Amino acid sequence: MRKVLLATTALVAITGVTSANADISISGSTEYHYTQPSSGSNLTEMDGNVTIKASADAGDTGVTYSVVYNQSVGQAAGVVDVEDIYIDIRGDFGRVFLGQTDGALDAMDNVTGYNMTIEGHTASATSTSLSITEDAGTVNYISPSISGVTLYGAVDDTNGKTGYGINYSSSMGTIGYQSLAGGGTEATVVMGQVDVAGITVGMASRSSTTSGTKTTSSDVGVNYSVDALAFSAVAQKSSDGAKTTTYGVQYTVAPGVYAQLEQVSDRSAAAADTTSTFMALGVKF
Predict the structure, then answer these.
(1) What is the mean pLDDT of residues 99-118?
(2) How far is the CA of 284 from the CAs of 26, 41, 50, 80, 279, in angstroms?
(3) Is 24 within 8 Å of 52 (Cβ atoms)?
(4) N or C: which end of the chain has fewer CB atoms below 10 A?
């Protein structure tokens, strides 16, 4: 009870929203990381976050307004940082969210191989993700799904970037297209994911042009789960010669408690080969 009272007091101080007019929830996670690279020193660190969310319904309109505050904690980020703080508005029209957080393009690209690793280790190969700077105050929209089609867009006025995308989902999987322009770079991504016999396969291809120079990258990922085990294999490559292969497994020890193991083999654009082994124990609440 004391923890809820303290968190509620903190939320009021941050947002001005009180428990009298909002439902307040607290969630988060903490992970202990151990990394063993093929060269250099082994690394141990803590990583985690605490998220406070306040939501309220606007009467009979069917619209829900939320304020989300996500504080990163631990050593992995190097500094304690406000990871997300934004306003989230949802209704029959879809979702509008404004502030500092992952943008609409990031929210809708989970079908790519890049996003199918256990812990997110991707090393040197160029990502197929089209990301708008998370620290900028962005404006984002995601439409409701209409016959399986979802439209979305994002504007980062601070850095002069605008992006949009379209996804189509069916019982077999999802295909999508995204475009991002501004800041001297124009980039597009074609992506898709299919589910067959309990196996999920995702892939994506990205093309970008900066100052007349074109670069490409691609990836393919495979996920499979059985009981408390989840397996992952992801391969990435980019036109500069960089390649990354990642194998991982996650075991659910108990509800909210998990252990992870991930092996990364990487070749940089300079043809330097490295490997690293990552292990983690995490607790979610």
Answers:
(1) 94
(2) 11, 29, 10, 19, 17
(3) yes
(4) N
